[in-house]
Write a structure and sequence with these properties.
Strand 2, helix 3 and strand 3 form a beta-alpha-beta unit. The protein has a single domain, classed as 3-Layer(aba) Sandwich (Rossmann fold), CATH 3.40.50.150. The protein is α/β, with parallel strands linked by helices. Helices cover 42% and strands 22% of the residues. A seven-stranded mixed beta sheet has the order 3-2-1-4-5-7-6, sandwiched between helices. The protein contains ten helices and seven strands.
């Protein structure tokens, strides 16, 4: 991962929330929130909360008596989440998952949606999640499966590699879809001190009204944008849209998405 891979600035948070959340994140946000609710936690910490897709689902699905603390490293993403709002109060806080500003055993559950791929040291971040969990608490998170099992991301990556062979933008393959091996994840959890975990592979569908929507979402609403020179951004988006249309048609498009969902205890 490069430093630019974790930079969610400018218009990225708005496009991310408006386009990517309904297209790929919402089904998994609802799934994570339901898994958390099964354990009836009184205090929940969300790390790498992004623009709040899981936060909103947790606020909707957990008892009102519980406490939700939502954190992210990028204040711009939190600002977008706060602007979108939740159905009940949430404590928003800028925080680094590598150094959580909370005491030991402070939470019943820690949840993270598609954030682990961005942690520079996965085992160290998992150890921090374990530290702030009470004994017997649950760390519930998900990561994207390999890019070949995520249609729109794969098509966009391949199309841009062909269009810009001297400097192919590889953010999607390198980071969001670069941490997908269950054996590697299991090893990182074990090194962090988690004694047991369950990993489930979950497929879903990604849908959009036109090919332009996923093209804009990926090229302009993620840090892939940081790899594409500003002068090439419109061209890259058009190339991605054409490739999606060629593969899935010019009207409404429908592609596979797939992720691993992990529940760890320790």
């Amino acid at each position: 991962m490069t430093l630019a891979d974790a930079k969610f600035g400018g218009s990225i948070p708005q496009l991310y929330d408006r386009l990517l959340v309904p297209m790929i994140f919402q089904p998994y946000a609802d799934d994570l929130a339901a898994r958390v609710a099964e354990h009836w936690p009184a205090r929940v910490l969300e790390i790498a909360a992004g623009t709040g897709a899981v936060t909103r689902a947790l606020a909707q699905g957990l008892p009102a008596s519980g406490t939700i603390v939502a954190t992210d490293l990028n204040q711009a993403m939190l600002d977008q989440a706060i602007a979108a709002g939740t159905v009940r109060p949430v404590e928003w806080r800028q925080a680094d998952a590598m150094r959580l500003p909370f005491p030991d055993a402070a939470f019943d559950a820690v949840v993270c949606q598609f954030g682990a791929m961005f942690f520079p040291d996965k085992a160290a971040a998992y150890a921090e999640a374990r530290r702030v969990l009470r004994p017997g608490g649950h760390f519930i998170f998900n990561v994207w499966d390999r890019i070949e099992d995520n249609d729109f991301a794969a098509v966009v990556t391949d199309a841009l590699a062909q269009a810009f062979p001297l400097d192919p933008p590889r953010f999607l393959a390198r980071t969001p879809h670069g941490y997908h091996d269950p054996a590697v994840i299991a090893d990182d959890l074990a090194r962090a001190g988690f004694t047991t975990h369950v990993c489930t592979t979950l497929a879903a569908r990604s849908r959009a009204a036109t090919p332009d929507i996923p093209a804009i979402a990926y090229c302009q609403g993620t840090p892939l944008r940081n790899e594409i020179a500003a002068s090439r951004l419109d061209d890259a988006t058009a190339i991605a849209a054409a490739a999606i249309a060629q593969r899935f048609g010019a009207g409404p498009v429908d592609g596979k998405i797939q992720a691993h969902v992990i529940t760890a205890t320790g």
